[in-house]
Amino acid sequence: MEAWIQQLLTWLALPQFGLSTVFIVALISATLLPLGSEPAVAGLLHLNPDLFWQAILVATAGNTLGGAISWWTGALARTAWYKARSLRHVGVDPAGPSQPPAPPNKQSRHQRMARIWLRKFGAKACLLSWLPIVGDPLCAVAGWLRLPFWPCVFYMAVGKFLRYLVMTATILHFWPS
């Protein structure tokens, strides 16, 4: 198993694959798919410490683009939800006649608080998009709430850049070459 991991790290360190792999892994990990980009960044930097700033910037760009995709996913989901709701309101069930009616739209106390909090802080709330578990859905909720796209992307980029900078520096400090 250790030989396989070493081979994977060697492959990631190749100049033609290293940074592009970090970009793709960072992009995918910023969507709602469960994947972490930290091992790819740390593995690349363990083998090529001279790529520190390039890896940080590439990972930030990929992760920010993934957050933007999540924002658009939330915005498009809102549009589809309101369209289905309006069709249901006029008596047309978009799911078809064989489907049971949709449950009433009730929000938990936590959902109401999150919505109030996001509306209060606006796009600045996307600074927290780097957080595990809640960061990726936060970007989608920002899109659902139609928070302004470019300010959200800017705050996502700042938060994700700081995360990669601190995380990578910490890993390299405790896991020296």
Protein model, in words:
The protein is an all-alpha fold and 177 residues long. It contains seven helices and no strands. Helix 2 (18-29) packs parallel to helix 4. The longest helix is centred in the middle third of the chain and has 38 residues, at 52-89. The protein starts with a helix and ends with a helix.
The topology string of helices and strands comes to: HHHHHHH
The major beta sheet can be summarized as: none
| Average pLDDT, all residues | 83
Number of helices: 7
Structural class: mainly alpha
| Poorly predicted ranges | none
Strand content: under 5%
Distance between the termini: 20 Å
Shape: elongated
InterPro entries: DedA_domain, VTT_dom
Domain VTT: 52-168
Transmembrane segments: 12-32, 52-77, 121-147, 153-175
Keywords: Membrane, Transmembrane, Transmembrane helix
Summarize the entry for a quick read.
This protein has 177 residues and is mostly helical. It has helices at 2-13, 18-29, 38-47, 52-89, 109-121, 135-144, 149-174. α1 (2-13) packs across α3 (38-47).
